[in-house]
Amino acid sequence: MTRILVVEDEEHLAEGLRFNLEAEGYEVGIAADGLRAVEMLTAPGREVDLVILDLMLPGLSGFEVLRRARASGDFVPVLILTAKDDTQDRVRGLEEGADDYLTKPFRLDELLARTRGLLRRRRWDGVADGAPPVPVAIGASTLHFDRFELATPAGVVNLTTREMGLLRALVDRGGEAVTRGELLESVWGLRPDTRTRVVDSFVVRLRRYLEPDPSRPRHLLSVRGHGYRLVR
Fold it and tell me: Quick check: 102 and 80 in contact, CB under 8 A?
């Protein structure tokens, strides 16, 4: 059964989310503060398929919970659910590694739609007519769109929704340069002129997976003053 962790200190909201998510067939756990969330995410044998994360929490903020999870190598899909609707907060959440961002108050149907979208990370909806997706070779690695996996000489890397989206955007352009603005808009849903380093941060992360020497990339290349291109 799919497991969702709700990190929310408002008890009535947390229980409401649990009720509605369980009605959809998910198994739901609740953490009422940041420290408990980190414990539940790092506990041996307690796999989580999705985290719904508030930002304003006792103990540790949602930003810190997310930062610690990503720093530990845990790239479980994360949906930030918060009353903080400032653009800077949204950008910071995405820079820390969140996969989606929804502000309170929210509509239940939208929350459930976002949840289903993030849980589809094991398959890729861009495949037409039900045909099996074709793996893509990038150097010595192979990208599997349907499983959200990158098979590398060092092992298999499970990709997040945004990591896969970034690679897909670059693969689709067939080696052409893609601007940061285009990537912000198509992958993160942000305005092309948003001031953020999120694209560059994700490129650094992907180079660790793809490149034999990330300091001298051969596949994920910078185009000065423009953006990035992928050389397969």
Answer: yes
Dump the DSSP string for 78-112: EEEEES---HHHHHHHHHHT-SEEEESS--HHHHH
Question: Could you tell me the residue ranges of all domains in the chain?
Answer: 3-120, 132-230
Poorest-confidence range of 35-49, 112-126, 155-169? 112-126
What is the CATH T-level fold of the domain 132-230, as seen in this structure? Arc Repressor Mutant, subunit A (1.10.10)
pLDDT value, residue 54 = 95
Omega prior to 217 cis, within 30 of 0: no
CA–CA separation, 232 vs 229, rounded Å?
10
CATH 3.90.226.10 holds for 3-120 = no
Give Cα separations from 212 to 22, 106, 229 (angstroms). 44, 44, 17
Choose from 78-92, 108-122, 190-204, 205-219 the range with maximum mean pLDDT: 205-219
Residue 63: beta bridge partners? none
Pull the structure tokens for residue 111.
Answer: 């929350």
* Alpha helix positions (H), 85-194: 87-96, 108-119, 161-172, 180-183
Question: What 3-state DSSP class applies to 150?
Answer: strand
